Amino acid sequence: MLKWLKGVISESSERKLAKVQPLVNEINALEDGVAPLSDAELRARTDQFRQRLADGETLDDILPDAFAVVREIAKRRLGERHFDAQLLGGIVLHQGKSAEMKTGEGKTLVATLPLYLNGLEGKSAHLVTVNDYLAKRDTTWMGPIYHNLGLSVACLQHDAAYVYDPGFNTDNPSLRHLRPVPRREAYLTDITYGTNNEFGFDYLRDNMVVDLSQVVQRPEHPHHYAIVDEVDNILIDEARTPLIISGPAEETEEVYRMFARLVPRLQPEVDYTIDHKTRSVSLSEEGVAKLEKWLNIKNIYDAQNYRLTRFLEAALKAHALYQRDHHYVVKDGEVVIVDEFTGRLMFGRRWSDGLHQAVEAKEGVRVQRESVTYATITLQNYFRLYEKLAGMTGTAYTEREEFHTIYGLDVIPIPTHRPMIRRDNSDFIYRTPEAKFRAVVSEIEEMHAIGRPVLVGTVSIEISEHLADLLKRRSKCRNPECGQYHPVCPLKEPQVLNAKHHEREAQIIAQAGRFGTVTIATNMAGRGVDINLGGNPGRLAEELYRKKDIDPDTAPPEELERIRREARQIWQVAHDKVVEAGGLHIVGTERHEARRIDNQLRGRSGRQGDPGSSRFFVSFGDDVMRRFAPEWVGGMMGRLGMDEDMPLESGMASKAIESAQTKVEGHNYDIRKHVVEYDDVMNTQRDLIYTERNKILEGTDLKANIQEMIAEEINDLVGTYVGDQREEERDLKGLLNEMKAIMPLPPHFTQAHFAGLPLEDVVEEFLTHAQKEYEAKEQKVGAENMRTLERLVMLGTIDRLWVGHLTALDEMRQGIGLAGYGGQDPLVAFKREAHDMWDQLMEHIQRNITHRIYHVTLSPQATPAPRRPAAVAARAGGRRGPNAGQPEGGPPAAPRKVGRNDPCPCGSGLKYKKCCGRAA
Ligand code: ADP
Ligand code: MG
């Protein structure tokens, strides 16, 4: 049954491939036609293709011609002609699928086909790599193909961006032909290489800008087509943690304390009014005036004092609305929320938007540092933004279900260009880790003795180092030729790689196939770099250029060709020797959680038909075994009574391990699905906010929009205060106070004036006045300035409240498992709460904008020079997880720091250090 099913599955992907085969034949048939063309004629083809597209042909129509042209130019420029298998892969990628192509099959070259084709549309095609080094390497490596066909190509780095330009030279060999450009320009090229983090964080940062000029991704079709290299790593391993731009809100403790001292000096009912119905507090003009005096500022609503209002609001609420032992308790120096319905203490939960800190300041306990989430997205949802997505890797098939359900990506295994002849030996299983490592050391020793290079995979840096240490102490070199190849025996000086210095490690791993070499590497180390038996011929050629003092940029092609041939000859000798010895041997020191990762390690050997072998060494002390292997496996060993150093090599045990791995894979898939399910809730909200922001940035007229909000707010307020009540229950005083907080009122707007008026008339009067007041303000500041103010207020408010909302959502997501929602499905509870919070967010936005728009003024500093949020933090934001650094210029920063000897901003007349600064 199972066998039959398997047959069906592989047949269907074979069938899919069979459908593509005629295209490959077609491309091959075109070869003779393009071969005689000059470079310029090939280049001219690009324009013809563009014309054909403009005339209504599709990419599929021109695919055979385009692929034939790319292959021809690759032949000329790189000396590599795409194999048929590579054409197959290229077609699969173009179709928006995942091509499973083994390591060393030449996926870098494969990608040039669909990238060129899709790049012709002028909407940019992205190639996503696992690290910056590979983005750079592949841009310069493949650059000549695109360049000679007239397409521009760029690469993103963590802190820079470059366009490939063969005319550009620098002294830095690793930046050869890479001309630095503004990031935005890198996105405007036809093809852009970069890591998932750079693409993802650029997207998030683009949605935090305050001016469109700061956006770096394309304004139109920013996510047109992407090929993700090592797609399993990026879309599966990395996808467990979302991209987050967050940071500690800095130096806020003093500010909270300062406001906690100021606010009690305000007089209730005079300086502020409390609305218990909406649980909000509004400052009156008097209150504002007092605060401005104490803080020594002109206008608290001014854009430059933006940030202060947040603290103020929080402090007012904490003071006036939140009572100890009712809303919260203070326990062991912490403020703990009391659930209003059940009275339960909600340990660990925190109010958002600074309220919790304000209450802490009010209670004089330690104010906990805020961590603010500015923006977040899962990789899953980032990559779903693309109109067309494709992927390539050596190992995707085991995870094909996930690729399909989450990303809609079919996995199509592409047959290898030459038959694979690597021997994968069955596992050796030991009772203890010590015995296992003894065996590993002697295996390496044996391989080295016959000159075979060995690549040892480990699951952690510690184990790499431990093993290197063991090897140095315990091994003995028994290879008579070792000295001819290595100044120091590799057993005594193994190469240890830990995926930290990608560029340097790439150089090392590229040589890991040389005679008798020993390399110990963690899983990701050197990924994407080819291990060529006998060393890397390209590097050899470069060495020769250097030795002969030849500049590859200027030397005549024939000379270059001669040297390449010479290098190839030298390499061939070295290569043959290693092949004769048996090729690269892979040693796994532990089974990984996922079979895919083990296959990835094995796949480093046996590239393009090379000989090679692999073996995994496992012990019952290993993590995966301890957690998941069934008991009987351990018992079996005991019963057999083997001595510690005798491995068990049993098919049954190996199967047991594999089934343990399958279990873990399933478990991890569930975790990732979970992450996406939660992010999906945020995704809808994020889309809405980002679209809204964009409209604002694009200069949509906001006046009507804001006036609508004002009208709505007026309606709401009148409804709340005078609503359906009978005359004597109307709270006209409350209403007037509220309205006064929004805008100046004319003297005749008194309680007496409104007494007895029908509801509609009350609304009408306020509406008319609001309108008049608005026009008056516009008259005063000028229409153009008014538009700027509208934009600033709207953007500032949305950003501030959205960030608060996001932080709260994030906190809720983390806490919801613990909270115990009465046995409810936490996801359902999350969705419901997220929905309620969204409604509240909308209300808050309206309320805030209404309250701010009449007060705000435009002082010269109020429009800060547009700065990209976080050119720096963005870099810091490039790191995953919390505390990735705080964007500057985006969300407002903490207010300027008060010097210890400055007069205290609270207006007490004392020095700051003797007053509010004392606690700090
Ligand atoms: P992958 O990404 O699939 O592991 P790479 O793109 O790193 O493989 O390529 C592996 C090696 O194969 C490189 O050294 C490359 O130059 C070589 N190669 C790829 N395609 C061809 C080809 N068509 N002809 C000759 N060599 C090729
Ligand atoms: Mg690769």
Q: What structural keywords apply?
A:
alpha/beta, disordered C terminus, 920 residues, disordered N terminus, seven-stranded parallel beta sheet, binds magnesium ion
What's this model, at a glance?
With 920 residues, the chain is of the alpha/beta class. The strands form 5 sheets. Strands 5-4-3-6-2-7-15-1-16 form a 9-stranded mixed beta sheet, sandwiched between helices. The longest helix is centred in the last third of the chain and has 47 residues, at 651-697.
Describe what this molecule looks like in 3D.
Helices cover 51% and strands 11% of the residues. With 920 residues, it is an alpha/beta fold. A hairpin with a 2-residue loop joins strand 11 and strand 12 (334-338). The protein is globular, with a radius of gyration of 33 Å. The relative contact order is 0.10. Bound molecules: adenosine-5'-diphosphate and magnesium ion. Magnesium ion is lined by residues 107-108, 229, 528.
